Amino acid sequence: MELGLKGKTALVVGASKGIGRQIALSLATEGVQVTGVARSADLLKSLTQELVATCPNDHAVFQADVMLEEPAGLARKILDERGDMDIVVHNVGGSLVSRDPLGSIEEWHYAWQFNAGASVAMNHVLIPPMLKRGSGRVIHISSISAVMLRGNPLYAASKAFLNAYVTTVGRALAPKGVVMAAVMPGAVSFPGSYWDNYQTSDPARCNDFLSHHQAVMRFGSPQEIADVVTFLASERSSFMQGAIVPVDGANM
Ligand SMILES: NC(=O)c1ccc[n+]([C@@H]2O[C@H](COP(=O)([O-])OP(=O)(O)OC[C@H]3O[C@@H](n4cnc5c(N)ncnc54)[C@H](OP(=O)(O)O)[C@@H]3O)[C@@H](O)[C@H]2O)c1
Predict the structure, then answer these.
(1) Digits of tens for pLDDT over the chain (252 positions)?
(2) Distance 171 CA to ligand 1 centre (A)
(3) Ligand 1 centroid – CA 91 distance (Å)
(4) For the structural domain made of 9-185+222-241, what CATH number should be given?
(5) Percent of the chain that is helix, strand, coil (3-state, to 5)
(6) Of the chain's two ends, which shows fewer C-beta atoms within 10 Å, N or C?
(7) Angle (deg, nearest 10), helices 105-112 and 153-173
């Protein structure tokens, strides 16, 4: 299938490892010029090398912390240096935030900002040029926790907000040529990930989790998520405005 991605530009926020890194590499494979954002200088350096080896292009990286820098200001800086983006993928987030359901508002705000707020703030700057052009793709990485509403309440509630944001804003953008969508991964493992460490430290409990919560009885891979994101980022997703796609091995 021709995805029509060759020559496009993409910003991947949270691109240095795991799911985000694979998304960056998968887009580069399709001929996209990638700009990646993350905190770790070493990982960003190796990402740049891997991107160029995958498909020579004017790829670039920004070392930034979206929880410390003002996200809209960061987005402005990126557009100033790299030009408008055809595709934006918001991948920053995770469940390693406070797990206290009666935590302080600061803890709730942190979890929300990490999993949703920072991307909302960046979209304020990144989407208007897409609207002017009448085309663009904005893909958020949510979680199946957003609909299963299980596990860490602060994480699940933040991702549930993100889903509501994508549905409602996705509808508002739909007539204007911009597709906003999300994927909801189930448990995804890769070397050094939370699940990889869990598998090593407590294989019995980890296998118990898999057999009770993922019908496929294995973890997903970053590639299995990146393949769907790459499709959503492409011209072929032209009827998927506001879509929220589970990629979760039949989470239950
Ligand atoms: N893995 C799973 O099982 C799973 C399941 C469902 C949903 N998800 C969602 O999928 C997304 C990616 O998950 P993952 O497991 O691949 O996460 P990960 O391994 O923690 O990677 C997150 C990426 O975001 C970057 N990042 C983290 N905090 C940042 C910050 N403050 N500023 C800038 N960049 C930052 C990280 O790079 P640096 O550390 O270099 O900054 C890394 O590139 C998350 O939104 C997560 O909620 C994951």
Answers:
(1) 999 999 999 999 999 999 999 999 999 999 999 999 999 999 999 999 999 999 999 999 999 999 999 999 999 999 999 999 999 999 999 998 999 999 999 999 999 999 999 999 999 999 999 999 999 999 999 999 999 998 999 999 999 999 999 999 999 999 999 999 999 999 999 999 999 999 999 999 999 999 999 999 999 999 999 999 999 999 999 999 999 999 999 999
(2) 26
(3) 6
(4) 3.40.50.720
(5) 50, 15, 35
(6) N
(7) 50
Residue nearest (by alpha carbon) to ligand 1 atom 44: 93
User: Of how many residues is the chain composed?
Assistant: 252
Pocket test residue of 141, 224, 247 for ligand 1, highest count of atoms within 8 A of CB: 141
* Residue extent(s) of CATH 3.40.50.720 domains in the chain: 9-185+222-241
Cβ atoms 179, 138 nearer than 8 A:
yes
- Residue 94 C-alpha to ligand 1 middle, in angstroms? 6
- Ligand 1 within 6 A of 116 CB? no
Q: Which amino acid type is present at position 128?
A: P
Asked if residue 17 has its Cβ within 6 Å of ligand 1, the reply is: yes
- Ligand 1 centre to CA of 247 (Å) is 16
